[in-house]
Design goal:
5-stranded parallel beta sheet; 12 helices; Rossmann fold; binds N-carbamoyl-L-aspartate; 308 residues
Length: 308
């Protein structure tokens, strides 16, 4: 079996290691219902966050506490850590690795998790590197699809919204290439279409994909609709582009009418207005269940990297 150390990008995972992660994740659901365990007793996790987060940071912290570990944390690290004094990411990592057994890093630059891993002796878990990737989110997304739909091979998924800057959609596309007969539909406003690096990777790995404009017609063809937020923070002063992208694809009660009965709607959250709250009570709205799976996945990852 492959062993797990740094978690940097979705392409690093094999189908075998994902099966193993999902197996441990299912056990973690039981651990949580028994109010946790002590397997990571006295181990310390550092969360080093240079960009805003609610779910990712709190679910990692909850995961560590559920396993009996300890947490040290810095949020808003861009403003409040030594980065504000000009310290490089590499130097910060060299310091924090002396304080903690694992480092969870969210940073505003694509490639930052890889840079951190190059200098770190303790595992680095990428919790989002700018518009790059968000591999632990993609693992919880795939776990959610398996749990809700019951299979991954042959799954048809629509990725909707900001596909150029949305790191969750990018990582999910990479991860789905591990399964057979997957079909992807990309539905994105023109200025934030899926980037060529992912399309080339999909082609190379034999995954079928189509770019579509009409969300309603795509809704009727898929098992999963994965809606995403237009990533305002990546637009800089291009406010007009942002405003044009926003509001183009909204999931509301009317769009839901074309989605099949057994299909689901997912969203990494936070949402702005791309899913109407009136949809929340529809049993096919899986996004809150999806967010809860994040704790179980992160417990599994922490156990696996710390026991390796
Ligand atoms: C996402 C992120 O930070 O990339 N949130 C998350 O981690 N669940 C999605 C987003 O911010 O739109």
């Amino acid at each position: 079996m492959d062993s797990l150390f740094h978690v940097i990008e979705a392409q690093q995972f094999s189908r075998d290691i994902m099966d193993e992660i999902f197996g441990v994740t299912r056990e973690m659901e039981n651990v949580v219902s028994r109010y946790g365990s002590n397997i990571l007793n006295r181990r310390i996790m550092a969360t080093l966050f240079y960009e805003p987060s609610t779910r990712t940071r709190l679910s990692f912290e909850a995961a560590m506490y559920r396993l009996g570990g300890e947490v040290i944390t810095t949020e808003s690290a861009r403003e409040f850590s030594s980065a504000a004094k000009g310290e490089t990411l590499e130097d910060t990592i060299r310091i924090v690795e002396g304080y903690a057994d694992v480092i969870v890093l969210r940073h505003y630059e694509s490639g930052s998790a890889r840079r951190a891993a190059e200098v770190s002796r303790v595992p680095i878990l990428n919790a989002g590197d700018g518009p790059g990737q968000h591999p632990t989110q993609a693992l919880l997304d795939v776990y959610t699809i398996q749990k809700e739909i019951g299979r991954l091979d042959g799954i048809h998924v629509a990725l909707v919204g900001d596909l150029a800057n949305g790191r969750t959609a990018r990582s999910l596309a990479y991860l789905l290439t591990k399964y057979e007969g997957v079909k992807l539909y990309f539905v994105a406003p023109e200025m934030v279409r899926m980037r060529d690096d992912i399309k080339a990777y999909l082609t190379e790995h034999g995954v079928a994909f189509e770019e579509e404009d009409d969300l309603m017609s795509v809704m009727s063809k898929v098992d999963v609709v994965y809606q995403t937020r237009i990533q305002r923070e990546r637009f800089g002063d291009r406010i007009q582009d942002y405003e044009r992208a926003r509001g183009k694809y909204i999931i509301d009660v009317e769009t839901m009418s074309t989605l099949s009965e057994n299909a689901i709607v997912m969203h990494p959250l936070p949402r702005v207005d791309e899913i109407d709250p009136a949809v929340d009570t529809d049993p096919r709205a899986a996004y809150f269940r999806q967010a809860h799976n994040g704790v179980f996945i992160r417990m599994a990852l922490l156990q696996m990297v710390l026991e390796a």
